[in-house]
Design goal:
alpha/beta; Rossmann fold; 3 domains; 25 helices
Length: about 675
């Protein structure tokens, strides 16, 4: 096993940025926002980033969890809709769980939950990048206007604290809600991936639709008021005056649940009769390409638009454009010169521009042919990856040791965790041998983010529990006496509270020496044989009477599942027998509150494991703290816990000044080194 590809990958693989993408809808849902988000996520995954998507489970035919083109997707159940917003009751919990395990959060807005995302990022110190894909523009009406204003407040507050706010072009960034982000705003042209149709496909579609050689005016998208399709329908009679045989072909979704705009436009559609051709929502890329290519002009009469991918798709299929001269929506024509711009809500001007293109489509052919060079998807993905790498370096500084372990109710754990964490290297590879539930591993990751840390434990159940607790480092089931790693793999090895459980601790220490590089450090902690009576009164009394200790159950105390307890000389002897040089040894935790072991490990931990401890208590005193200030805020119902913590704090401070003649301690810590290789 020592040289297996899996083990080598775990140990040698560089740390890739972990990106959490958050949005309401994800593939296979189809909108411009969804398509861009999907391409960015998949493009980042292709660069080596680890990408997870958190979205709604709006389509029950899709799996709750899947890996899609290299991207891990987690979908949240929905419970109805309010206007455009899906209700996701479990979204906050899932968001909090995932944010803390990622290096960057990438939010695609507009999203009603943007405020929750902003607060989760601040709570866990994770940078936030927002790609804003358009302001919320609602139809007239008091409720819709209230929704629009509420969304604006949420998004502007999110932009105010985001590390970067991205939109698809400078024009929209300067004239939309994104402008409130100031110098943190960026423009990245989105990745547009679209293949032109096969030879003859456009003619075949014309034949299928009975269009013959008639001029075709195409338009596409969701049939909502902001797209301005009613302006085009009002312009149609004027266009027909100049080109009587013209047809108006539409591809997209007319039945939009949160707007009745299509119903209001129906009289205009009916007035066109067979001049209106409805292809419906076209999801087949080949058919959609044929739709674009069969058109003589593609029209997008939007009232509001950040960037319309359909315009670039039409250009890739050789079709010139007519678009409204609005912020964002005009960017494709302004950049490429492959069409004409008109004022919004002006049917006469729109009709004149359409007729002008139909009269001389060859005029725009050179600009149409050159357009794809402006929208290269590889450049877009590279720009996003550079942005992610930039903000990942700005992640909130790692919390201090006290922030990570200072809330624990076991003063002995506090002492050994501080001692171990202070001696870890700042970079390199570290093994946590016998990681248990991974609490020390979790703290090490928070404190030393540049370390490559691996945890092993012989209990697969404990490895699974560590993963469920949120430990993000690689974990594996392995016996510390038979490790699946090559010689000299690690710069440091931690073996905390393990040796006392083993039949042959010296054999295990020799194996730990083997995987250490020459000159590498082994950090060991074990329980002290001469523990104070307050720590475990029952076993202290039994020992004084010469009675064997209790080793099982809630009253087992210091002897819980242990083969032995240690005195300093015994630990030093075992380390030297294993071929290690002992550099430091320390007895720890002379004082503690009465019955500490019983209270913490006999009562509190089992209750927490059974789910009977409030989440607020876990956040305040648990061993998987993230170390950020919110984890230490007071909240209703934690006064009793606060009293207990103050008692432990007092005992812990007393351990800073241990009497010279003290003989009772809870633990022993030792630092040993593998001798350096001889020249």
């Amino acid at each position: 096993m020592a040289g297996s590809p899996l083990v080598e990958a775990i140990v040698a693989a560089p740390l890739a940025p972990r990106i959490l993408t958050v949005l309401t809808f994800y593939a296979p849902h189809w909108t411009g926002l969804t398509v861009f988000a999907c391409r960015i996520a998949e493009g980042l995954a292709a660069t080596g980033a680890e990408v997870t998507v958190l979205c709604s489970h709006h389509d029950r035919s899709t799996p709750r969890r899947e890996v899609r083109h290299g991207v891990r997707v987690e979908r949240i159940p929905t419970a109805g809709r309010v206007s455009r917003t899906l209700l996701m009751p479990t979204f906050p919990a899932a968001l909090d769980r995932l944010v803390r395990d990622h290096d960057v959060v990438h939010l695609h807005s507009p999203m009603a939950e943007a405020g929750l995302v902003r607060r989760a990022c601040r709570r866990h110190g994770v940078p936030l990048v927002v790609t804003h894909q358009g302001d919320v523009v609602m139809p007239d009406g008091p409720l819709n206007r209230a929704v629009q204003q509420a969304m604006r407040r949420v998004l502007v507050r999110t932009f105010a604290t985001a590390d970067r706010v991205v939109t698809h072009n400078e024009d929209y960034a300067a004239r939309s809600w994104v402008a409130t982000a100031g110098d943190r705003a960026r423009a990245i042209t989105p990745p547009v991936v679209f293949d032109p149709p096969a030879d003859g496909a456009a003619d075949d579609l014309r034949t299928e639709l009975g269009l013959g050689s008639a001029p075709v005016v195409a338009f596409a998208g969701r049939w909502v008021e902001e797209k301005g399709f009613d302006t085009l329908l009002r312009a149609a009679p004027v266009v027909l005056g100049a080109h009587p045989d013209a047809r108006f072909a539409f591809a997209g979704e007319r039945d939009v649940s949160y707007e009745d705009f299509a119903v209001r436009c129906q009289p205009l559609v009916d007035a066109l009769g067979d001049r209106f051709v409805d292809l419906g929502l076209v999801l087949d890329p080949a058919r959609l390409a044929a739709f674009y290519a069969m058109a003589d002009v593609f029209v997008l009469p939007s009232r509001s638009d950040c960037f319309a991918a359909v315009q670039v798709e039409a250009l890739r299929c050789g079709t010139p454009l007519v678009a409204t001269d609005i912020a964002g929506g005009r960017s494709v024509v302004a950049t490429t010169g492959a069409g004409l711009l008109v004022a919004p809500d002006d049917p006469a001007a729109l009709a004149a521009a359409i007729a002008e293109v139909l009269d001389d489509p060859a005029r725009f052919a050179p600009a149409v042919a050159a357009a794809p060079q402006h929208y290269r998807p590889d450049l877009a993905v590279a720009a996003y990856r550079a942005l992610v790498d930039e903000v990942a370096e700005r992640r909130a500084p790692a919390p201090g040791v006290d922030a990570l372990v200072g809330g624990d109710l076991d003063p002995a754990y506090r002492r050994r965790a501080r001692w171990l964490l202070a001696r870890l290297p700042t970079t390199g590879r570290v093994l946590d041998a016998g990681t248990g539930l991974g609490s020390l591993l979790h703290a090490a990751q928070q404190l030393r983010p540049d370390l490559s840390i691996v945890g092993v434990d012989r209990s697969l159940e404990r490895v699974g529990d560590a993963r469920l607790a949120g430990v993000a480092a690689p974990l594996a089931g392995a016996d510390v006496a038979v490790l699946p790693f090559p010689d000299a793999t690690f710069d440091a090895v931690v073996c905390s509270e393990v040796l006392e459980h083993l039949d042959d601790p010296v054999t295990a220490l020799r194996e730990l020496r083997r995987v250490l590089r020459p000159g590498g450090d082994l950090l060991v902690t074990v329980p002290h044989a001469d523990f104070p009576a307050a720590w475990d009164p029952l076993n202290r009394a039994l020992g004084a009477l010469g009675v064997p200790p209790v080793r099982r159950g809630p009253l087992a105390g210091a002897w819980t599942d242990h083969q032995r307890l240690y005195r300093p000389a015994e630990l030093v002897e075992q380390l030297r027998d294993a071929g290690l040089e002992v550099e430091a040894i320390e007895e720890q935790a002379h004082r503690c509150p009465p019955f500490t072991h019983l209270a913490v490990y006999g009562i509190a931990r089992p209750l927490a494991g059974a789910g009977l401890v409030p989440a607020s208590w876990q956040a305040r005193a648990g061993r998987y703290r993230d170390g950020h200030p919110s984890a230490r805020r007071r909240s209703p119902g934690v006064q009793l816990l606060s009293l207990a913590q103050r008692a432990v704090d007092g005992a812990d401070r007393a351990n800073d000044h241990v009497p010279a003649d003290a003989t009772r301690f809870i633990g022993i810590a030792a630092a040993a080194r593998r001798p350096a290789a001889r020249p």
